[in-house]
Amino acid sequence: RNHLDAIAAEMAVGCKRIEIGASGDEGLQARAAVLAEVMSGGFGYQGDRVTYDDMQNANLMRVIDRRKGLPVALSILYIHAARSQNWQVEGVNFPGHFVIRLFHDGKAAILDPFEGGQICSIADLRRKLKATVGEKAELTPEHYAPIGNRDVLLRLENNIKTRLIQESELQHAVMVVDRMLMLAPRHAPLWRESGLIHAKLG
User: Fold this and answer.
1) Could you write out the DSSP letters of every residue in the chain?
2) CA torsion, points 151, 153, 157, 158, in degrees to nearest 10?
3) What are phi and psi of 63, to 5 degrees?
4) Contact in structure between 115 and 42 (CB atoms under 8 Å)
5) pLDDT higher than 70, residue 133
6) Gap between the terminal Cα atoms of the chain
7) For 48-63, how does the pLDDT look when each residue is reduced to its tens digit (9 = 90+)?
8) Cα separation of 112 and 201, whole Å?
9) Could you give phi then psi for residue 191, rounded to 5 degrees?
10) Lowest CB count within 10 Å: 36, 57, 74, 170, which one?
C-alpha cells in the first residue's frame, strides 16, 4: 500500500513537470509519457523476458519486489498509476499479451506496460497478435474490447493456474481456481474446471 501511494505521489510530481493539459493527441501523448517516465523510468518496472514463465511474474507482491513481471501484472500497476490522477484508463482484451488503453480529450492510445509503457501502433499490435496466435491471425474488433477490473484479476490468476497445471501442481491449481471463484462465483466454466481438477485429485 505504501508503494502504491508512492506511485501516486510520483505521478502527481510528473504531471507538474510535463504539460498534460494539452488537447487531443498532444495531451494524450504527454500523459503516456508521464506514465512511462514514472513506471518504467522512475520505478524501473519492466517485462521479464529472461524468465517469463517464472511464477513470481504473476504474483503482484513479487512483481512489486522485483520490479518486473507479466504484461497483465504490470498493467494493473499502470492502471493504478493512471487512475491515481483520475485519468480514464482500461484493460484491453488482447489475446496472449495484455495491454491497456489510455483516454484523453476524445482520443485514445493503447500502451504496452511490458515494453515500458510505449504507445502501440496498429503494426505493433498486428505483430504481437501474430507472434501469439499465429501468422494467419488478423486484428478484429474483439481484440480491442475493453475488459473490466474483475476480468483483469481473473486473467492474472489464470496465468498462475495455467502454470501450476503445466507443472502438475494440481493441489495448488485448485486453490487458485477457488480464489478465482471468489472473484467470479457465477462464471460457469470455472466451476467445471474446479470439478475436473478435483476429479483428477480423487
Assistant:
1) -HHHHHHHHHHHHHHHHS-----HHHHHHHHHHHHHIIIIIIS--EE--TTTT-GGGG-HHHHHHHTEE-HHHHHHHHHHHHHTTT--EEEE--SSS-EEEEEETTEEEEEEGGGTTEEPPHHHHHHHHHHHH-TT----GGGG-EE-HHHHHHHHHHHHHHHHHHTT-HHHHHHHHHHHHHH-TT-HHHHHHHHHHHHHT-
2) 20
3) -60, -40
4) no
5) yes
6) 40
7) 999 998 999 999 999 9
8) 38
9) -65, -40
10) 170
What's the residue count for the chain? 202
What value, to the nearest 5°, has the Cα angle with vertex 101 and ends 139 and 18? 135
- What average pLDDT score do residues 175-191 get? 96
Instruction: Give the model confidence (pLDDT) of 65-111 as tens digits.
Output: 999 999 999 999 999 999 999 999 999 989 989 999 999 999 999 99
Per-residue cell: 39 = 513506471
Which grid coordinates are listed for 124?
505493433
Half-sphere exposure of 136 toward its Cβ, with a 13 Å CA cutoff?
A: 0
